[in-house]
Specification:
The protein has helices at 6-10, 18-32, 42-56, 59-67, 104-110, 142-147, 232-237, 293-306, and strands spanning 90-91, 119-120, 128-129, 134-140, 149-160, 166-177, 186-189, 205-211, 217-220, 223-230, 239-243, 250-254, 263-266, 279-285. The protein has 316 residues and is an alpha+beta fold.
Amino acid sequence: MEFKDYYKVMGVERDATQDEIKRAYRKLARKYHPDVSKESDAEQRFKDVGEAYAVLKDPEKRTAYDQLGANWQKGQDFQPPPNWDQGFEFHGGGSGGGAEEFSDFFETLFGRGDFRGGFTRPDHRPFTARGEDTFAKIVVDLQDSYIGATRGITLKHTQIGDDGRPRVVNRTLNVKIPKGVRPGQHIRLAKQGSPGAGGGESGDLLLEIAFRPHPKFIVEGKDVYMNLRVAPWEAELGASVKTSTPTGDVDLTIPPHSKSGRKLRLKGRGLPGKEPGDFYVVLQVALPRAETDEQKAAYRKFASAFKFDPRRDGEG
């Protein structure tokens, strides 16, 4: 995926004020509008300008985009770092239409759907508008999904300062993490989004869940995996070993003649839920090192007893 330098597209400096960005957009939109421009690439340039403006006009999106750094060059191969947008509170409202035509780069960073608030104008009453929904990603521990938790989270929110540039402010909320929550799911906090206009109710805050990487466990959907190192004699002869799971230690039976990569399933010990996931132990046969003369002699005796050629006897 190619990196897009939105400041270069707009022809403004990275410290440009919101008014400078707005003026640049108006100028370029007139210049490249397909109905009036004579440029051969007017349509694409018009889309590029619209995409850049959709990000830079929005203080939240601009602040998050700036966090990616200024060292990326237009057209460079780019993948955003994991959870790069953790804690940024994005306002809804999309890009003002046409976002479906924007690039993969935009979609990867900001393609979360359109959570815009609705507008109402009851008969004979002043105009009111529901506030926009806001969106943020939060990272929680795997254990929170197994037992549920209440966590204090700090969200980065942006405001336009007196100098016309966005500045970051923080707000802290206590959030209940429900048991069984999975990565990619949302927690909706009613009326915690942007305030409404004309007495309209506030929008909602939608929190997308991501899991903090765990040193032992890997989550795939509702299932959880763990690699378990076993000795060659445990794998070949079978054994009972104590192993960790997210809910505590268990005695695991290793069947005889097991190989590296074999998966042992513990049904229902994955992420909780109406239909809980499973927990998989993936065996990894580990070879001990021969450090002493006695250990080296043991390996020679082992080789003599089996006369095994791994390049020929693939099944072992």
